[in-house]
Structures are given as structure tokens and as C-alpha cells.
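## tool: complex_structure
## caller: assistant
## args:
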Amino acid sequence: MNKKNNGARTIPGVSLVLLVAALVAVALFAAACGGGTTTTTAAATDTTAASTATTAAAPSGDPIVIGAIVSATGPGAALGEQERNVLQMEEKLINAKGGVLGRPVKIVIEDDKSDPKEAVTAANKLLTQDKAIALIAATTSSSTLAVKAITAEKGVPQMAMAAANDVTDKAPNEWIWRTPQKDALAVQRALDYVSKTLKVKKIAVLHDENAFGASGAAEIAKQAPALGLEVVATESYKTADTDMTAQLTKIKGTNPEVLVVWGTNPGPALVAKNMKQLGITIPYVGSHGIANSTFIKLAADAAEGVVFPAGRLLVPSSITDAKQKAVTDAFAADYAYSYSGKPNPFGGYAFEAISILTDAITRAGSTDAKAIQGALNATTGFAMPDGIYNYTATNHDGLVASDMIMVKIQGGTWVLAE
Amino acid sequence: MTFDQFLQYILSGITSGSVYALTAVGFTLVFSATQIINFAQGQMVMLGGMMGITLHEAGLPLWACFIGAVAVVAIVSVGMEEIAIRPLLRKGVLTQIIATVGASFIFETAAMLIWGRDAKPLPPFTGETPIAIGRATVVPQTLWVVGLSIVVVVALTIFYRKSLYGTAIRGCAVNPEAARLQGISYRRVVVFTFALTGAVAAAAGVMIAPISFMGYANGTMLGLKGFAAATLGGLGNPVGAVLGGFLLGIVEALGVGVVSAGYKDAIAFVILLLVLFLRPAGLMGAKVVNRQ
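## result:
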């Protein structure tokens, strides 16, 4: 007992002595004036230079922390899984190339389980605990909008990977930029095709009742009149519905010249099969939600002839711009090396988000939020797989309708429709 | 609405309805023997479908996939009873029902981890050339599903009414204590019932996968619609379950035709509520038997 007490008393005593000694040493060192300090700094600079010379561009110093929120599980997982893969891969690649501003990049990835509430928790954690200087968020539109409220309030740059119009259209939008083609853009591209290439007037719309389908249908209703198109029928279905022949029978009765289907798998594949069953032969124009091999696998023969708008990543041969082609090929090669297979559009959005963000940080020359904001707004002619990105203070969408292509399914694969 | 359209709505309704009907039968089996509402029923249908698809991808002929899926899900169903439901026997039916809800989450998550998140197709049993009835059409697979529901219902009815073992199962449902005193093993009846319900669920899953694809998340919707169909027809009555399923499907399809697809679920559930107000035991339900 006694011994213990003594021991306990001695330890603070010792550390106090050490502390005083340390303070004295520091004071002496500081008092020793500029000369000594300069020498140390010079020596340090020398070492950095030496290490730079030997290992090309190994980043050093505190890492630049970028937070990312993806839906790696839950209904949005089909999209978010590859986004996570790409971000993990890019972290390694960026650091192998010397990091950003000479510092290593650390991408902290959180899974929001496709739930906006989880996304909010993740955003708060990333900003306060991990001290992220910017966020890449999120996979789904609802999570993106939930996180947007936080980044707007705190003034932190957010790169969105979601397509809903509200992400950038609705204020506050000073701190959010997006990489995917927004819904309005895809609708514009699809309706352009209907009116200018197919040259028809009467369209029927069949859409999923989820956020993606509903927002697409609303956008079609808004844009159709300007293109001289008449919407003769609008019907909907639930994502897990087992049969769409009832909706199609009703649509058939209104004699449309083309059917526009706005939804994500598996609904649109079932629509294609049911159309074949009912002998409906009018053209099927889909959304960018079916820009994946799952649609072809599910609809099989019925997928033939289906046309939909998509990013150029789907038909890489459609890329004519040399810079865009180079960056796309490099990305596809990196992806094939790190994971097997081809990157899908969602992996592309993540790649674009991290590339544009790190480019902006480099141009800003600092990790200050205001500086990054300015650099992001000054992004011009930035070639990426989905198109050439141009952001301004008022345009945070980056892409235009002509960055998208119309793709036709032919012989079980994708070809250009026009 | 023209007559051709009307005919097509009826056929569309029969297609969806046959899917609901087969799911509903599983609910009635478990309910009539144990008074448990098995909320994992839809997930067992999904497991059956996914299992059938996997065996087909492995190169097995469709009939072998069918038998394989039925066997596997029957075992899974008995396993669920052993692990999740039996230990709760003394806690009452409500606790056991909640255990089935838990099991449904486990099945769904396991299916997502095993088979991934995309829905998968299965080729139809006898081609895809639609059969014309008047100027409306139906795919041959629907006839398979309708046929299977009829076969299952007839077989179950004969089994329950005519065979000694079927009578024993009904006895357990009415009064397990009295049945036990007659020398009937309640335990064996329950295991048999869960094996049977798993088998029926898997058969349904393999049959409907060619119509609507199958993915890990399909179980929830199937379970909900199947439960509604079973309640509509009268819980515990296989014939009622099948009729309830077809009725639900047809009402939904006509709802699309008359009002709009956005309201079809609402219309179907309003009708379900009305039936339950007017006939609480369901359309074909017997007088409610109270066990406790």
C-alpha cells in the first residue's frame, strides 16, 4: 500500500521534471535564434528532395481525407457496389502517382445501406470525426439530397453521383456538383430521338412508381409539348410486379406510335417480354436505367431493338474526342486490372467524381473549402468517360444532352442507334 | 373498355393471380396445422425460384431443377421450424409468428449474399409462343402455374379429407392436447407440415420464375400478396387460398383497366378489407376455431 503510494507519487514527480526540462530545452532552442532553425529546415527540405528523387513522387505529410458515401448494400447496391470498388482503386492509383498537392489521399468510404438516414449519420461522422475536406455522396438521389443539407450548411464541397434533377436544380446548390447525366438530360435525349429520328408524334409512357420512374415521367410530361409530342397514355407499375400485360393492354387501346418505359430492372425487362406476348410491335424507348447487361439477360429475345439514352461508356467506340477516349481506355484498363470485367456507368460516375475533385484541389493549391469551390466552378473542358465537363458558378451539372448517345440492343449487345 | 381488352385483363389477372394463389396455399398449410402465420412464406417461394435457377445454370434439365429446389426448400423449411419456431412452443403463437418474420429477413439477406442483387431469368417449361384466346393472349407458363395450383389444391383436399394422416393433422389443428391423447405425434405433424409447405413454396417459385424473373427482394411482395389472397379466401382453406389468389389478381388487373395502375394495389386491398368486414373468416373460411 505504502510502496504503491510512493510509486504513484514519484511518477508525477519524474514527469514534472521531464516536462520542465523539455520546456527549458525548447526555450533555449528558440532563443538560439534563426540560424539553427534555418539549418534544420534546410536539412528537412533536402531529405524530402532526396526521397522525391528516389521514389518518383511518393506523397508525404498528413493525408488529404475525402469522405465517400455509397450504397454498398440495400436496393441501391447494384449501383453502389461498383462505385465503392472504383473509389478504393482510385485511392491506390492516385497515391501511386504522387497523391494530391504532394500529400497522400485517403478516401474514407461509408455504406448508407441505401437509407438517407444512414447517409446523414455517415456524413456527420465523415466531417467531424474523419475531418473530410470534401464528400463524394451519394449513390441514390434520396441519400444525396439528405447529405446536401449538411454540406450546404457547413460549406463543404460535395460531388454527387445521383441523377435526380433536384440535386443541382434546387437551392441551396452552391456546394454540390454532379457527374451523372441528370434525368432531365436523359429525357431530353430520348424525346429528341423520338421526335427527330423516329419522327412520330403519339407517345405512351409506362413508368416505375419509384423515385426514378416518377421523376422521369414528370419530366417527359414537361418536355413533350415543346417537341410537338402528345402523351396519349401514362401508366405505372411497382418494381416487384409480376405481370405488366394489364397496363400494356390499356396502353395498346390508345394507339400510341412509341412506348417510352422509364424504370430500373427488372420491370422494364418484364415490359419487353409482355409486349412481345401481346404482339405490340411499336418501338420501345427505355431510360438510362436499363443501361446494363442485366436488362439484356432478363429480357433475352425481347430486348432486341430496344433503344435507350446512355453515357458513352456503354459504347466506347462512340467516343470521338481523343482526350475523352484516352481517359476512358485508361479507366477501363485500370478497372479490368483491379477487378475483372468492365466498369459500368455507376463506376464511371465515381471515377469522374474523384477525378474532377482531385483536379480541382490541385488547381486550388489548397484544401480550403472556398478555394476548392472556386476551382470546381472553373472546371472547363475536362474530358471524362461520360463527356466533357464544364462547371460554372451557376451550372453544376457539367454535361449537356449531346454528351449522351442513343443505344440500340442488337444481337444481344449495344450498338449506336443513330 | 372493349371486350378484347376485358378478356386480356382477365387473362392478365389470372397470370398474376396464379402466382398469388400458389403462395397463398403455403400460408394455409402452416396455419391450419399450427395457427402460425408463416411470414417467411414469400421468401421460401423466392428461395425455391433462386434454387431452381441455380440448378438450371449448373446445366440440369428443368424437371431436375424442380425436384432439387423442392427438396432443398423443404429441408430449409423444416430447419426453420427446428431452430426458430420449436424452441418457442411454450411462448405462444404470437412469438412464433414473430420468429417467422425474423426468418424472412435471414432468408432474404442470405439470398442476397449468395445470388447477388440482380434478378435472374429461368426459361419457360414449354416455350414462349403466346396462346391466343379470342383476341387476347396468355403465355404457356401461366397454364403451368394454374395447372399446378389446381393439382396442389385437389391433392391437398383429398389428403386432408380422406387419408388417416390428413385427419390426424386436422385433429392437431383443432386440439393438440386431445390429438396427443389419441396417440398422434404433434411433433411429427408439425415437421411434416413445414416440409410440405416448403415443398409447395419451392414448386411455386420454380414455376413463376419464368413469368416474372426471380430476385432476392421478390419474397416480400409475394408474401404480402399471398397472405392477402389467403386471408381473402379464408385462412386455413387451400381451395379458398387459390380462389382468393385468382380473385386478387383479376381485381388488380381490372383496376388497371378501369382506374389506373397507380391505384391497383389500393383497390385490391380495399376489397380485401370489405370482405373481411362482411365475412371475417374470408370467402371460404370455416368458423374460426380457437385453440387457446
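## assistant note: Residues 1-14, 24-56 of chain A have pLDDT under 50 and may be disordered. The longest strand of chain A covers residues 230-237. Handing back to user.
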